[in-house]
Amino acid sequence: MSLTAPPAPAPRITYGAVLGSPYVARLLGGTLTGRLPNGMAPVAILLWATATGGSIAFGGLLSALYGLSSALSQPVKGRLMDRCGQTAVHLPAALLNSALLVTLPVVGPQGSPALATAVVVAAGLTTPPLEAGLRALWPSVLPNPRLRHAALALDTGTQGLLYIVGPLLVAALASAYSPSLALAVTAALGLVGTATVACAPPSRRWRPAQPTSTDGRPGRRLTSPGLVLLFVSLTGIGFAIGSMNVWSIAMAEHHDQDMLSGILPAAFSTGSFLGGLVYGRRTWTSTTTGRLIAAGAAFLAGWLPLLALLGPYAATFAVIVPGAFLTVVVACAYVTTDALTPAGRTSEAYAWLILSIGAGQSAGTALAGRLAEHPLASAALPAAGAAFALTVLLAARTHLGPASRPLRQGRHRRPSRGRHKTP
């Protein structure tokens, strides 16, 4: 008879333990504050353009250009971080972005539309790459893989709140004061949040690992089949989100309830936040690839009820389900990206992930706008994007092998090997 006691179960991870870890609350709070302009700037630019004599079409164009230029520049800024460190990229980008947003009211769309367009595009190009930077910091800030798992889920889940709080704050400032003040507050929040992150010791000390392969030659390019297929699949996830936003507007017009255009995306984002909280608290024994594909299937299933052309109340509750699984898909995608990315290219790879979702979102918005007058087609587009994502993931599952190790510690865990140096 053995007297050996069974191993004690691992202690339950709490978000208090995550946020109580050194620098986590500062980095997460600073990143969320610094990224608020992602949800505020497009709305503030549109309101400012129309309030100063520009047309809605021109304001919409400026707003779209800001988001597009920000997304397209992500890989470049990610690569700069991998080469020069985070602070050297974050602070100059934040200063330029804030200065350009504050300068925008001076040019006036009715006086010089071309100059206004140039300022908006330049402001988008200089948005700080805070999201990719934070994901690169987690391994050095949280060496414990279970804490890192919870932090990544919390980080991913709270992103949707930016697009609820940001537009509401802009609308309140523009209504009570002016769109110009809303732009100024947007610029200030971006600068303060970015400085909070960039001046934190983990960000200042962060350095990329040396990009070497096992044979001593420079590291691999970001063109492995697994990474390429993963990023292609994520365009489908973005397509579903973009088409959902337009479907929300179509629902509001069809049911003559203007608030639906905000309530439906807010319900989706709330689902994302709650899904992240639940996912992060659990310890998973399944592989990351398995969770990624399972979450992709659930994300698709969550959109299918919309094909029944639900009423406003049923649709509001229905979109919570795909929102809940969005966080799981994105969190697993980041872990997979980390596993498949060669040393020294992590920030750039994260930036390509962000760009993939953003590009899909733009495509979904554009196509949904053309089909908005057809209720069934409009409701089917989010499911179509999710189905595309799941199909590509299933085809790519054999190429996602390195991510199959659950809760992988990662190449970043030992600061002495380059990515995070102690002073």
UniProtKB/TrEMBL annotation:
Residues 403-423 are annotated as: Disordered. Gene3D superfamilies: MFS general substrate transporter like domains. Signal peptide: none annotated. Residues 408-423 have a biased composition (Basic residues). Pfam families: MFS_1 (PF07690). Keywords: Membrane, Transmembrane, Transmembrane helix. The chain crosses the membrane at residues 45-68, 89-108, 114-138, 150-174, 180-200, 227-247, 259-280, 292-311, 317-337, 349-369, 375-396. This is MFS transporter. The lineage of its organism: Bacteria, Bacillati, Actinomycetota, Actinomycetes, Kitasatosporales.
